């Protein structure tokens, strides 16, 4: 460098990259240099990591901050994915999210398990359809409640010209193809 017709012997101490040390940046000045801390570092020797996550608004909505040495990373909150964590994950698309007698309902950022029709309780283990009301099925019908389903079946014997056939009584299950034949092996 030349100053007013004279040649300067000013050395660039920052040129070799070792003038300041780790986690520092070097700024050349006239006749010398200044060391400053790199972004994310602080303290006398730039050895103290700055916790960028202390700024609670550093990450966007649906994100949480994770401090790293000299920096930070924004991760999507549980239930979100995609660019800027703006996509809601459909947890119900995965199998086995809910237990027996339950169905999955996707919500923003999560999911819930609702009881199937005919089931109640915290874990949907209480059958709620009951045959306690005599008018549930009507005249000449028997109410049967099994596995969360309410079924009304005929309760009387029907006589036809060939033989007596049981429609359903005493816990027998009628055949759909032949109402005179029982699936339980009964008459």
From TrEMBL:
Nucleotidyltransferase found in the keyword field: no
InterPro entries: EGF, EGF-like_Ca-bd_dom, EGF-type_Asp/Asn_hydroxyl_site, EGF_Ca-bd_CS, NOTCH1_EGF-like, PKC-binding_NELL
Residue intervals passing through the bilayer: none
Organism annotation: Dreissena polymorpha (Zebra mussel)
Any one of the GO CC terms: extracellular space
UniProtKB keywords: Disulfide bond, EGF-like domain, Glycoprotein
Protein's recorded name: EGF-like domain-containing protein
SUPFAM superfamilies documented for this protein: EGF/Laminin (SSF57196)
Cystine connections: 37-46, 76-85, 115-124
Ranges of residues in domain EGF-like: 10-47, 49-86, 88-125
Molecular function GO terms recorded: calcium ion binding; heparin binding
């Amino acid at each position: 460098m030349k100053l007013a017709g004279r040649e300067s012997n000013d050395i660039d101490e920052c040129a070799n990259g070792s003038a300041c040390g780790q986690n520092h940046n070097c700024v050349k000045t006239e006749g010398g240099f200044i060391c400053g801390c790199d972004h994310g570092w602080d303290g006398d020797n730039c050895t103290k990591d700055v916790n960028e996550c202390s700024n609670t608004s550093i990450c966007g909505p649906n994100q949480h901050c994770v401090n790293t040495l000299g920096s930070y990373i924004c991760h999507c909150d549980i239930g979100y994915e995609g660019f800027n964590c703006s996509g809601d994950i459909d947890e119900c698309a995965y199998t086995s999210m809910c237990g027996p007698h339950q169905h999955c309902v996707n919500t923003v950022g999560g999911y819930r398990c609702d009881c199937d029709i005919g089931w109640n309780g915290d874990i949907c283990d209480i059958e709620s359809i009951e045959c306690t009301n005599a008018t549930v099925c009507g005249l000449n019908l028997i109410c049967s409640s099994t596995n969360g389903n309410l079924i009304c079946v005929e309760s009387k014997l029907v006589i036809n010209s060939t033989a007596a056939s049981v429609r359903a009584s005493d816990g027998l299950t009628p055949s759909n193809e032949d109402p005179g034949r029982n699936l339980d092996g009964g008459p």
